[in-house]
């Protein structure tokens, strides 16, 4: 089987090339086999590759799935933002809706010079995790977790977060759990670093899904539902985080810019 598919390489949550988080976006006429999607993620070697297919259900504009280099994941914020950037730039309009398999309907909307991506808010609760804390290299003030593999470790200040040198191989043995280390920021309201070694991403550049958990976590501590954030990875990236509270379920809106780095065709021969 040989096929050719439109392909974009986008730096998400970035106002310039070579910053933010890299995502590949591929528009498909129909779904390729699951093992091929994961193999494409491995070929790209980005934290996530996003795949979109026109949605025939009437619930959204597109179906959306994401893979790491080794695994299909349930939620990815930066690659959703990148997908919205690609489709709104190509097709026009101010908003695009995606239907996902495990995270419901997601949206990307134009705002100012960039976009906002709307994700379901992820709640966490205080819970000890000494076996993971022992691998981070410093003792956090507080640990929050949930049963969907999201872990938040609160540290005293930005310098402590930047100095962390975790044992990534050992953290990877916990599986596809996400480890978000956070503190008040020096130049933004909050700062974070995010490690997901079990999913093939030792340290993520800018993690939308982590901020779907960090936003309600920090909104309660800051006493307001909107604030700025910086993810202090090697590439770095900036977000504006907004919590939208609703009886139907809280939603997180993450704002940022995107830059297209490459546009072309991806050839698949299997």
Describe, in plain words, how this protein is organized in 3D.
The protein has 270 residues and is α+β, with helices and mostly antiparallel strands. It contains six helices and 18 strands. It has helices at residues 34-44, 77-91, 130-133, 158-162, 168-172, 208-222; strands spanning 2-12, 21-28, 48-54, 62-67, 72-73, 95-99, 105-111, 114-120, 125-126, 142-145, 150-154, 178-184, 190-196, 201-204, 226-231, 237-244, 251-256, 258-269. It has an 18-stranded mixed sheet that branches. The longest helix is centred in the N-terminal third of the chain and has 15 residues, at 77-91. It is globular, with a radius of gyration of 18 Å. It starts with a strand and ends with a strand. 44% of the residues are buried. The model has no long low-confidence stretch (mean pLDDT 96).
């Amino acid at each position: 089987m040989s096929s050719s598919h439109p392909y974009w390489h986008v730096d998400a949550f970035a106002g310039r090339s070579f910053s933010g988080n890299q995502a590949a976006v591929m528009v498909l006429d129909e779904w390729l086999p699951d093992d091929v999607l994961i193999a494409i993620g491995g070929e790209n070697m980005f934290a996530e590759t996003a795949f979109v297919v026109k949605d025939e259900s009437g619930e959204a504009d597109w179906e959306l799935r994401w893979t790491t280099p080794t695994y299909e994941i349930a939620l990815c914020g930066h690659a959703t933002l990148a997908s919205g950037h690609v489709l709104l730039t190509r097709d026009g309009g101010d908003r695009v809706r995606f239907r996902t398999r495990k995270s419901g309907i997601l949206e990307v909307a134009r705002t100012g010079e960039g976009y906002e991506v709307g994700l379901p808010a992820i709640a966490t609760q205080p819970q000890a995790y000494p076996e993971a804390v022992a691998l981070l290299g410093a003792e956090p003030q507080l640990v929050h977790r949930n049963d969907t593999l999201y872990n938040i470790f609160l540290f005293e200040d930005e310098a402590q977060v930047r100095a962390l040198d975790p044992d990534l191989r050992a953290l990877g043995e916990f599986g596809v759990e996400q480890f978000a280390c956070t503190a008040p920021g020096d130049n933004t309201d909050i700062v974070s670093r995010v490690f997901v070694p079990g999913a093939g991403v030792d340290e993520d550049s800018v993690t939308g899904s982590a901020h779907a958990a960090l936003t309600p976590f920090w909104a309660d501590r800051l006493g307001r539902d909107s604030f700025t954030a910086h993810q202090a990875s090697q590439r770095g990236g900036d977000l504006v985080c907004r919590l939208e509270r609703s009886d139907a379920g809280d939603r997180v809106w993450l704002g940022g810019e995107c830059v297209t780095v490459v546009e072309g065709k991806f050839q698949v021969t299997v």
